[in-house]
Each structure stands twice: as structure tokens, then as C-alpha cells.
Amino acid sequence: MTDLLLILTPILLGDVANPVLFALLVYLAALPRGVLLSSAALAGHTAAYFGSGVLIAFAFAELTEFMSNPGTLGYVIGGLLGVVLLYVAWLSSRSSPDRQPEQPAKETPVSAFVTGAIVNFIGIPFGLPYFVAIDQILKADLSLGGSLAVLAGYNLAYMAPFLLVPVLTLALGENARAILEKMSGWVEKAGDVLLPLIMFALGVFLILDAGFYFATGAGLY
């Protein structure tokens, strides 16, 4: 479990550098009932992220049933993810994707929840580290309950930094807007630098891990 946590921590750092979600929350926080709207959007994003993670994990697990060696597909997927991460890291270092999702004219808690959910599908490559995290959780060969618990813990840790938006809005009211806009700029700049570096490092690790497995029959950890 300790080895798994050591692997998941840098993945989480790359995953949480998501300026799309932060910009959405800052936008919603500036509206009337901003605390409620930003909280609803964050709840929707977290629910969708966890739900999609469970579906992806079960899909991976079902595919491995067709393999004579249950571990082989995991390392094939890991190696392919490594190649994709290296390519996306290169693209990210050259240009930044459009990070401003369109917003409806009027937001309600329900629409904010839905917007938070669908923002999972906006701003690729920001979702790629999550696939790597799921792949590593499956490789750890935990029980079903243990895998779900780790995935839930990962999602809660991912959500925690974004709670600053509704918390600051609740505490400071209108005065929070300027602070949050500056923080949004910092997150975007950090994402431009941090995300490509972490994706490159993860890509190299996954390719080496897969290569070591096919050479020796065992992974790096």
C-alpha cells in the first residue's frame, strides 16, 4: 500500500493542476449564491470523476479476464499510457488548450452540478493522469473494497484544494473575488509548467515499468 501511495501522490499533483475546473468554480463563486453554485459544481465533478473511475476500473478488470496472464494487460495499458503521456506532455509544452468552457446565461444549483460533471470531458489532457492512477490501483491487486476505498480517497484528495473556492467565498464574500481570480491565474500558470513535467515523468516511468515487466516478468515495484 505504501508503494501505491508513493506512486499516486505525484499523479494526484498532476491531476489537480486543472485550471478548467478552478476557473469554472471561480466564475460560479462570483454569481449570486456563489457558495452554493460552486459547491454544487464541485460535488458534480467529484461524483462524475469517481463514477467514471469505477466504470473504467471495471472495464479494465473485465478485459484482463480474457488474458492468460492477468498482469499482462495492465502493463500493456500502462506502457501505452506512458507513450500517450509523453506525446501529450510534448504538445502541452508547445501550446495551451482552450480552458474556458461555455457557461449558460443563468445558473442554478442543479445546472451547476451538471456543469461540474461534464467538465470532466473538457480540457483534455487534464484527465490523463486519472487513467494512470486507475491503472496503478488495479496493478496493486487489492480487494474490490480496498480498490474502491483507494479510488474514493484519491477523489477526496483531488477535491480538497478546490474547496478553497466556496470556503473563501463564504468567509470573505465579495472580497474573495480578487483573491480567487489571482489564484486562478496561478493555477493556470502552474498547470502550464507542472502538468507537462509530471506527465513526462509518469510516461517515462510507465514505459520503463512495462519494459521491465516484459523483460523479467515483474514490475518495478
Structure description:
With 221 residues, the protein is mostly helical. It has one domain (2-216). The protein is built from nine helices and no strands. The protein has helices spanning 2-16, 19-29, 34-64, 70-94, 109-118, 128-139, 144-159, 164-172, 176-216. It is elongated, with a radius of gyration of 18 Å. Residues 66-70 and 96-105 have low confidence and may be disordered.
Task: Tell me the radius of gyration.
Answer: 18 Å
User: What can be said about the biggest beta sheet?
Assistant: none
Secondary-structure element order, N to C = HHHHHHHHH
Number of helices: 9
DSSP strand count: 0
Q: Report the sheet-strand fraction.
A: under 5%
Q: What is the rounded distance between the termini? A: 11 Å
Q: Could you list the spans in which at least 5 consecutive residues all have pLDDT below 50?
A: 66-70, 96-105
Helix content: over 70%
Q: Characterize the overall form.
A: elongated
Q: Kindly give the count of domains.
A: 1
Task: Supply the helix-strand structural class.
Answer: mainly alpha
Average per-residue pLDDT, rounded, comes to 77
